[in-house]
């Protein structure tokens, strides 16, 4: 699925479902961080007008996702906890190229975003296919579709602007790295846990 090297064990969905307040809190903040990432990309890449318009759309969509999760939290009488750390994303960030040309870093930042969208999409798929809660299963199905679109958007922009990077080769490196990294996860009830 989406080129991912390792698929999540479906039993992870049971861990997530055993503490819905926690997974929903973590999920809400994932959406907020996805919006923040789109805003960051806008502020640093003003020369790509088509790109920043798309990032503005994505930032809005991610905040709509955030609000949908918060609404579910509210309806169920849960609390939105504090922002959670995301070690998985921190590890991916370390892998992103920060030296080299400005464009090289930009392309890698797009691949970083595509990677997170791909894994989030896969995790939402595992949730929708395995959780007992019907309302949430439908919710996660819809989000899976949306994050798959974001994944494609980031990867396509990487290809479009890659003047000095072999995107297919670099994307293969990302998939290999992520496939190793994710082996340490899948044991806690967080979107990337
Ligand atoms: Fe989202
Ligand atoms: Fe997304």
Automatic annotation (TrEMBL):
A GO MF label: tRNA 2-(methylsulfanyl)-N(6)-isopentenyladenosine(37) hydroxylase activity
Gene3D superfamilies: 1.20.1260.10
The organism's place on the tree of life at top rank: Bacteria
One GO BP annotation of this record: tRNA modification
InterPro entries noted in UniProt: Ferritin-like, Ferritin-like_SF, tRNA-Hydrxlase_MiaE
PANTHER family: TRNA 2-(METHYLSULFANYL)-N(6)-ISOPENTENYLADENOSINE(37) HYDROXYLASE, TRNA-(MS[2]IO[6]A)-HYDROXYLASE
Official protein name in the record: tRNA hydroxylase
Lineage, uppermost ranks: Bacteria, Pseudomonadati, Bacteroidota, Flavobacteriia, Flavobacteriales
């Amino acid at each position: 699925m989406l080129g991912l090297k390792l698929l999540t064990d479906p039993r992870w969905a049971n861990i997530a479902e055993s503490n819905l307040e926690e997974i929903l809190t973590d999920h809400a903040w994932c959406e907020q961080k996805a919006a923040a990432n789109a805003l960051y990309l806008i502020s640093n890449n003003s020369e790509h007008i088509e790109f920043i318009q798309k990032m503005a759309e994505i930032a809005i969509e991610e905040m709509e996702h955030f609000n949908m999760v918060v609404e579910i939290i509210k309806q169920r009488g849960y609390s939105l906890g504090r922002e959670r750390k995301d070690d998985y994303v921190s590890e991916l960030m370390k892998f992103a190229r920060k030296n080299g040309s400005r464009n090289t870093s930009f392309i890698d930042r797009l691949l970083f975003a595509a990677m997170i969208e791909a894994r989030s999409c896969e995790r939402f798929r595992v949730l929708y296919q395995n959780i007992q809660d019907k309302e949430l299963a439908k919710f996660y199905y819809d989000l899976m579709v949306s994050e798959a679109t974001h994944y494609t958007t980031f990867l396509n922009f990487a290809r479009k602007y890659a003047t000095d990077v072999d995107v297919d080769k670099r994307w293969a490196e990302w998939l290999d790295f992520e496939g190793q990294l994710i082996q340490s996860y899948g044991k806690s009830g967080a979107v990337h846990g």
